Amino acid sequence: MAYTVTPWEVKGDVEYDKLIKEFGTFPLTDKLLARLEKHAGGLHPYLRRKLFFSHRDFDWILNRYEKGEKFVLYTGRGPSGNTHIGHLVPWIFTRWLQEKFGAKLYFQLTDDEKFWLNQGMDLNDTTSFGYENALDIIAVGFDPKLTKIFNDTEYAKTLYPIAAKVAKRTTLSTAKAIFGFKDSSNIGITFFPAMQAAPCFLPTILEGKNTPVLIPAAIDQDPYWRVSRDAAPKLGWYKPAQIHSKFLPGLGGGKMSASDPASCVYTTDAPEVAEKKVMSALTGGRDTIAEQRQLGGKPDKCVVYDWHFYLFEHDDRAVEERFRKCKKGELMCGDCKKDLAGYVTKFLGEHQKRREKAKKNIDRFISRD
Amino acid sequence: MAYTVTPWEVKGDVEYDKLIKEFGTFPLTDKLLARLEKHAGGLHPYLRRKLFFSHRDFDWILNRYEKGEKFVLYTGRGPSGNTHIGHLVPWIFTRWLQEKFGAKLYFQLTDDEKFWLNQGMDLNDTTSFGYENALDIIAVGFDPKLTKIFNDTEYAKTLYPIAAKVAKRTTLSTAKAIFGFKDSSNIGITFFPAMQAAPCFLPTILEGKNTPVLIPAAIDQDPYWRVSRDAAPKLGWYKPAQIHSKFLPGLGGGKMSASDPASCVYTTDAPEVAEKKVMSALTGGRDTIAEQRQLGGKPDKCVVYDWHFYLFEHDDRAVEERFRKCKKGELMCGDCKKDLAGYVTKFLGEHQKRREKAKKNIDRFISRD
């Protein structure tokens, strides 16, 4: 395999069509998108651009919805560092779903997981990062009346009994097979799949009746939901449905990673820092301007084009024009990166204002036992 | 080995001197008992009769105490059924320590553990048994101002972050070696050693400074504290000290077990039921009365004598007299059992009154997050 996708490692050139088959998920077909469009009154650009491309039981979610049963959203974040723009992708999409469907949202910050995984981190560190990350989550624009954000360790009285029920139905063998745990793993991280499963069933517990849950998340998180989906029928609960996104490439061409500052733009980066990162990005350009003019660029192998396409340039004609011009050698990488830097710094400016405002609102969102 | 002692299985004729060596614990010497006696103004009968016989760091607890540092008590119960008289032994002793040393007590009800271990039990079942068992705990006479009793699932916000820290320092290999977990174990029970360790450090967390903790419990629980004691120095916390009791034999001669009604007297048994159980107990008597008169009984191999000796006949002369008379063939088993039944029903009558009263007081003892 030329690529690896696990909850803790994504590397290589991911072939998403293959991944769907390997993971046993289903493609988000045009037919499904049309049904979604009907209810939402439109399609989010991430859907039109196939950034969200795969699902489990999303058709079932729509069936239920059409019968008058509302779904609840659940997504999460592992708080081991600052938020970058890639993290925002599923959140922005989740916010859109919340708005279009009036859906409640449970947002899990896995301070326990990140503590267990990072040798050098104390629990205080990951819980604090949880609060930092929560500012970005709130800045995305969720409705405080419909949204609960929580660190696992601060919401454990609610989560732990649900996790206990999932844990009882999950053997070490299963957890080892899915997550690659070894006997040298600590007994916290091997319990963690149960904690990550808990919010799948939280709406059912809190509402006192089986409640459909939809999880928008990057596809590397899919294995966790397999644990939830295995346990659900044994517990008499609905299986959680998922809608999966691809990974955005990092600015250097590899993975976008919070621990590699050059690969990503943090939500707290100053505009000039962000601009510099974008201007240093790997492109699909030729070695010289002359060559580029003559042969044209390779937008299909270009991080900068990907960011335009998936994140910022949602006007179809504009992005088609960018593609065409690049291929024809009419658009130089410097200019294209300048365009992207413009989008990024504009976005950052707005996000940072909302993030600042979130500091005053945070108590309206955070749930603690 | 002719016997097995693990947290989940005790069988065979336990040789306590050997067990001390195997477990690496220390005998409660007369010298230590004398120091304890000085501070407590006396010795509890369970100490005089060596029902408590082993320890870890109890000398250190006394050193600290002599330097003005008070210790906190911690003990627990796995709520998978009704309480029997054997369960009360460490509690009665813990209450004595509380009274003599003005010590705070944290009493853990491991509803999570028992749920994970018992296939047929729901979490509601074990949590409910926790409340049932709490009535017996309270009936033992603890001071409500110094005592907190909690079910793990209801106190998880407090316990889980502490457990998380222990869990990070405990590998699956260690847990497998100590508890015999297998890959077919569920991921709840393999996490549980961390939850049982958490109250060892709760006083240190709650009081904001390193606080000595003493755990009175049957010696089969010792492996759990090895996990705590391994983790403690890595976390900068005191190791918990322990004082260990032997096991009381069941009425049939084997293990006293809550799941074998004939082996034990439940605290809720009606007097006539308890009497009948005692009258059916295995004794060290001979086959016929004539033989007994001629050869004498075997009090050193007699459950009924053990119950007299350890539990009820705390007057040294009375119990010596009983031993002597039995050996001489002057005491018949029927009479000896009648004596025991008298003690048991008297005790039950008093306990059940206090247990009834506890129903009104339970909220003064139970801690929930």
Task: Please characterize this protein's 3D structure.
Two copies of one chain form a homodimer. Chain A has helices at 16-23, 30-40, 45-48, 58-66, 85-101, 111-117, 123-139, 156-168, 172-179, 192-207, 222-235, 271-279, 289-295, 303-312, 316-328, 333-365; strands at 3-6, 9-12, 26-27, 52-56, 72-77, 105-109, 147-151, 213-218, 241-245. Chain A has two domains: 3-247, Rossmann fold (3-Layer(aba) Sandwich), CATH 3.40.50; 261-354, Tyrosyl-Transfer RNA Synthetase (Orthogonal Bundle), CATH 1.10.240.10. The longest helix of chain A has 33 residues, at 333-365. In chain A, helix 7 (123-139) crosses helix 16 and helix 12 crosses helix 16 (333-365). Chain A has 16 helices and nine strands. In chain A, the strands form two sheets. A seven-stranded mixed β-sheet of chain A has the order 3-4-9-8-5-6-7, with helices on both faces. A two-stranded antiparallel ribbon of chain A has the order 1-2. The first copy, chain A, has 369 residues and is α/β, with parallel strands linked by helices.
